[in-house]
Amino acid sequence: MLGRLVYQRLRRVLLPDFRRLWTRDIDARVNDLHLESRVKEIQLRLAATQSELSLLRAAHRRLALREWTATRAPLLETLGSRLSLDRIRTHVCNAVANAVVHTDPTTYAVIDQVLPPDFYDLLSRAIPPSELFPDRDPVKQDWEMEELDRAPELTRQVWSFFDDHVVRDVLAPAIFARFGAAVVGHYAETGGAAFGRAAAEIPHGPVAGRIQLRRPGYHFRPHLDPKRVVITGLLYLAREGDSEDYGTQLFRVNGAFRHSGMKTFFPEEEGVTCDVACSVPFRANALLAFVNSGAAHGATLPADATLDERYTFQFYIKPNDGKLKKLLQDLPEEIRAEWKGLA
Q: Domain count of the chain?
C-alpha cells in the first residue's frame, strides 16, 4: 500500500511539477540570469523530492519488516525441533547419491528435492523481505551471508544454520565427492593427470554463499566463474506459482579457450561463440551443481517475464588457496600465470 502511495505521489504531483518547470524554461526564452534562477529552483525541488522519497522508502522498509516479522513469529518458537542436522544430513546425502550426473556440456547434476520439504519451506519463508536487499541495482540484488548480523532474527538463525552446517558440513562435501573424477579432470587441464590427482586431494570447501534476487530485465551472458571455483552450486528458491521457464542455461563453447584469472570469464570475449546446450528448469527445492570448466552458463529474466522476483542461493566450492598455490609452484611459469591473483 505504501509503495503505491509513493508512486502515485510521484506520478500525480511531483512529476507534473517538474514537467511544468522544465517546459517553462525551454519555451520562455528568458535571459541567462532568469534561466540560472530557474535551474536553481529545479535543483532545489529535485533535492527536496529525493529527500522525501528517501524518507518514504525508509518508512516502507520499516512497515514491510514489521509485517514480515509478525507473520513469521510462530516459526521462531519451533526452530529448536526443526533445525536437526542429522535428519537433514540423511536426506541430502541420499538426494545427492541418487542424482543423475551428466557430462555434456560439462559435468553437472540437477538434484531434485535436495532438502527435506519442511526444511525447504522454512528456508524459503526465512528469506528476508525484498525491501531489505541492497538496492544499488534494481534488477540484480544479493544478500551475502556475511550480512546476516543485520537480518531479521528468523533469517539470521535459519540461514546461518543452513550456510554454516547444511552447506558446509553436508551438501558441499557430498557434491564434491560425487564429482570426484570430474574434479581431477578439472585440475588436469592445468597441469596434467598427476597434478589433477594432487590438486583434487587438497581440502575444499564452500565460499561466497548469497541469496540472489533477480528481477525482470536481468541478463547474465555466457560465462565461467573465477578460476579458483571448482564447483558452483545453485539452489532454486522457487515459490508457488513461479514459472519454471527462468532457470539456468548451460552453454557449449564452440572452440578452444583458456580459462584464466580470478574474475568472471567470458569466452565470447576470446572470440569463440557459445550455444545453449540445455536449460535447467527453475523448480522449487532443486539444486544445480556443475564443474566450472569446459562449458559456460548464464541466465536471463526478460523485461516481459511473468516472474517479478526470482530467488536463488549460490555458493562455490574451492580449494585451500595456499595449498593450491604451493602445488602450482612446480608448474611452468606460463601455466602459473593463468592463476594470477590467487591468494
A: 2
Based on its alpha-carbon atoms, the radius of gyration of the chain, rounded to whole angstroms, reads 25
pLDDT, tens digit, 9 for 90 and up, residues 163-182: 999 999 999 999 999 999 99
Judge if 58 and 114 occupy the same domain: no
Of 26, 46, 76, the domain-final residue: 76
pLDDT digits (tens, 9 = 90+) for 2-48: 444 444 454 454 545 545 554 555 455 545 556 677 777 777 777 66
Q: By CB neighbour count within 10 A (0-12 exposed, 13-18 middle, 19+ buried), where does 217 fall?
A: middle
* DSSP string across 24-55: HHHHH---HHHHHHHHHHHHHHHHHHHHHHHH
Task: State the average pLDDT for the chain.
Answer: 85
Judge if 68 and 104 occupy the same domain. no
Q: Any idea which residue has 516481459 for its cell?
A: 304
Residue of 119, 143, 144 whose CA lies nearest to 132? 143
Indicate the residue type of 217.
G
* Cell 530557474 found at: 38
Q: Do 174 and 229 sit in the same domain of this protein? A: yes
Compute the distance between CA of residue 202 and CA of residue 327 in angstroms, rounded to an integer. Answer: 9
Q: CATH number for the domain including 276?
A: 2.60.120.620
